[in-house]
UniProtKB/TrEMBL annotation:
Name the record gives this protein: Uncharacterized protein
Source organism (scientific name): Pristionchus mayeri
Domain Peptidase M13 C-terminal per the UniProt entry, residue ranges: 514-719
Cofactor names: Zn(2+)
PROSITE patterns documented for this protein: NEPRILYSIN
Family: Belongs to the peptidase M13 family.
Cited CDD domains: M13
Span of the signal peptide: 1-23
Lineage start: Eukaryota, Metazoa, Ecdysozoa, Nematoda, Chromadorea
Matching PANTHER family: NEPRILYSIN-2, ZINC METALLOPROTEASE FAMILY M13 NEPRILYSIN-RELATED
GO function terms (MF aspect): metal ion binding; metalloendopeptidase activity
GO cellular component, one term: plasma membrane
Cited InterPro entries: MetalloPept_cat_dom_sf, Peptidase_M13, Peptidase_M13_C, Peptidase_M13_dom_2, Peptidase_M13_N
Amino acid sequence: MGPRCLAAAVVVLLLLCAALAAALIYMQLSKEEEVCLTPGCIQTASVILSSMNSSVDPCDDFYEYACGEWIKGHPIPDDAPSVSNFENLGQDLEFALKELLEAKDPNGTVIDKNSAIYKAKQFYRLCLNESEIMDEWRKVFDEVVKMFGGWPSLGQHDPSMRIEKLYAIMVSKFKVDSLFKATVQPDDKNSERHVLLLDQPALNLFARDFYIAADNDERLAYMTLIRDVLVLLKADAQTATRDAAEVIEFETALANITMAEEQRHDIAELYTKMTLGQMTRELPYFNWKMFFNEVFADIKMKNGTDITFDDSTEVVVYGVEFLRRLDKLLPQFHSRKVTNYLSWCWFFKTMLRDLPDPFSLTIFKFYKSLNLLNVQKVRWHGCVTRINSLMPMATSSIYVKNHFDHEAKEQVEEMISLIMEAFTDLLESEDWLTSETKAFAKQKVQTMKQKIGYPDYLNDSGAVDQEYNSFIVYPGDYYRTKFKFYEMYQKDVLERIVQPVDRERWVAGAALVNAFYSPNTNEIIFPAGILQPVFYSKHFPSSMNFGGIGVVIGHEITHGFDDRGRLYDNMGNIRQWWDNITITKFEEKAKCIEDQYSNYMLKQIGLTINGKSTKGENIADNGGLKQAYKAWKRYEKSHPKPPRLPGVNLTHDQLFFLNYAQIWCGTMNDKEAVRKLRTSEHSPGPIRVKGPLSNSNDFAQAFSCPQGSPMNPYKKCRVW
Ligand SMILES: [Zn+2]
């Protein structure tokens, strides 16, 4: 073959190559243009489009861009202080449970009165029956108050009843945590075993700030509530006014000695292990031995012998300073005042909310004055919530049977392993961790356990029935039934003191819209309730699932490495596995996030975020977004390209971020906004969008945001 021939052949070959390339590009383009027209895609596209305000520049205000129309179309309902995509999911779940609890058994079914579902349904029915409750409640109330040695505001008080004994009954039989929290949980420094735990109490008015700020609306409304309720309970008006003021006086004193949440982040610093002997010496006013022996008075070992405590019994205390102050505070108050406070707390937490009018009207007035509701919530909501928290595995078992798509579990498993890989890769590329710390971190993520959907034993109704075997329903008697349920629930918690930690146990039920990281067991948990739109759907393009449940997965994994989670090793023990150089670097990076968020203002009320108390959640949001995006890009490479959504002119990278933002679409009234800023560990929705996205180079690239634009600032913060 001569040179001319060769040249001609080369030209022909080049032409062929060019044609082939053009065809390939064309095929690729036309593939990209492929539009999905299934009902699922059309529905998804319509939800996305009707939520966003595309007239706004996404680089200016991505929250408004993603949620502008959603907000216009979702006014706050009269029976709530806020509305959001996230809260709406919870509402849907409540509706689903309502239907299941109300469902009639098919004709001819033999009813097993020992089954957990039967008990749950009966409880729910008793809870709805207001006239029956009105006829019966006072009898049970009087019996309990008698067991307490009387309620001084109502004219009876046995001064020989020790506070230790009274409070022990409230803890063991009614789950009350009003003076301090006392429970059984895995030991943070020995995660194989359970230990007695003491912590500061949960106050009735949302947060300590509400007691400490001078004469605020919340405190005044609360005082009116206590007085009105005491009058309804037949206290004389003068006593009711005086005692309501005294209850607030004691509760305010208690609030004053608690630590602010933002100072309680370092569990290692908070943790003190003491023996009962030591407590008796150092905290002499309150008889701790008497208290614990009384709490466990009805709890037995497996072989039937009593569980007793002596000087050598170990107790873990979170914030021993609180107990020191409590030990000085208690003798300053007459036992009548303390008893009034405790009796009020018991009534408020266990009875008041479920009592029909005139009680429900009184509590409604309280919530209304705080702007929490404008109309009374329909009764069944409370009944569903109560049974879902007291018999979580019974409600979960019917929920997953009817509403859980098993395909979800497989897909989420695949996503988790991709996101864990992404986390490990990102870890590899970090230069601020020393190689030892990096190796430990890798081991921690690789040994992290995962629980998805629900525990397998829920498929076996016999096992669920067994779990609630000791729960007794008293026909016609709601409160007697409810109190039995409380007692049995607490018994299950307290009995663990003599049992090793069961790592297979689920710390939460499946009928919940939430996800968790448990530091004691180094595991991530995704209940069935969160595996639904907007977080996840098998009809979503995978980009949206990664932007939804994918970010949640990354968020929970990152909790293992946030300011609190990083203190625990891979077995769930607090131990210093970080070297000091890395700790200093971590703290610098975390401080960047803290300062950044402290400068964010929630425009609606003109207040800034508390960067300190939201630090852990913000670190998790930022890390979760980054890992999920990296995992999505990896997934995209090994899977066929998903078709476009009809009418949605966005790439899949853009859809990833859009779905992340749309999860947080919502509004709240001003009072609620203030309350959230003061009490929540999470930043409010608009900030959960602004923070992580403006720290993300991936986001800036996907939306071509110019450097220095509001959503792509020059200064960015990140830990992971
Ligand atoms: Zn979180």
